[in-house]
Amino acid sequence: MNDADVSQQIQQMVRFIRQEAEEKANEISISAEEEFNIERLQLLESAKRKLRQDYDRKLKQVDIRKRIDYSTQLNASRIKYLQAQNDIVTSIKASAAKDLLRVSNDKNNYKKLLKSLIIESLLRLKEPSVLLRCREMDKKIVESVIEDAKRQYAEKAKVGSPKITIDDKVFLPPPPNPKLPDSHDPHCSGGVVLASQDGKIVCENTLDARLDVAFRQKLPQIRTRLVGAPETSRA
Which InterPro entries does this entry report, sorted A to Z (predicted)? Predict the structure, then answer.
């Protein structure tokens, strides 16, 4: 083999090695680019996923805050509504209490009322001997009707006439002073309180007590009227 053949073979070998090197380099470049693209996509997806999670979390926080704000406003509105309703109910009762003060102004009717209250109390107690308390200003009226009340009770209960002792040491409180509307002193608009001699059984039959009982009984109806009854369909 002459020098030209050797040189030609060497050049072919060099070209072959160079071609393999270039192909290997190209494969490495392509593989590196693919790995880069894959990693880039993974990072991008991870970033997107994190953004979505942050967005969902913040969206939930906003939704929870809206619900809390709505609930708070709703509760505040309910409290205001109930407070306004209670204010109206209180004013109704206060107005009724003022009307009670005028009951005792009508002497004849008040005298009949006191007698009825005494009879009713005797029928509830059914005691042979009772202690009666009234306002000091009503003592003479009570004394004027007490015998007739005893007689009517005995006829209704079909028992003997009871002994009624009017307490002349402890009286029921006087009516409220109109000049002191905000006073919290004890007061009584009228009526009587009867008790057994041992004090174990008490019948409070004052106008104020009867108003309290009537008001408690009628309170659901009052609240219904304030809220408003649902309209019934008309034919």
Answer: ATPase_E_C (IPR038495), ATPase_V1_Esu (IPR002842)
Side chain identity, residue 36: F
pLDDT at site 1: 62
User: Do residues 130 and 164 lie in contact, with contact meaning Cβ atoms separated by under 8 Å?
Assistant: yes
Q: What is the pLDDT of residue 228?
A: 61
Kindly state the helix (H) or strand (E) to which residue 204 belongs, with its residue range: strand 202-206
Rounded-to-integer distance, Cα 142 and Cα 150, Å: 12
8 Å CB contact between 149 and 115: yes
Whether pTM > 0.90 for this model: the answer is: no
The type of residue at 177 is: N
Q: What are phi and psi of 131, to 5 degrees?
A: -110, 130
Could you tell me the strand order of the sheet in which 163-166 lies?
163-166, 129-134, 191-196, 202-206
Q: What is the pLDDT of residue 181?
A: 65
Give SS3 for 71.
helix
Amino acid at 92: I
**168, 139 in Cβ contact below 8 A?**
yes
Distance, CA of 26 to chain centre:
80
Q: Which residues of the chain have pLDDT under 50?
A: 229-235
Amino acid 95: pLDDT: 82
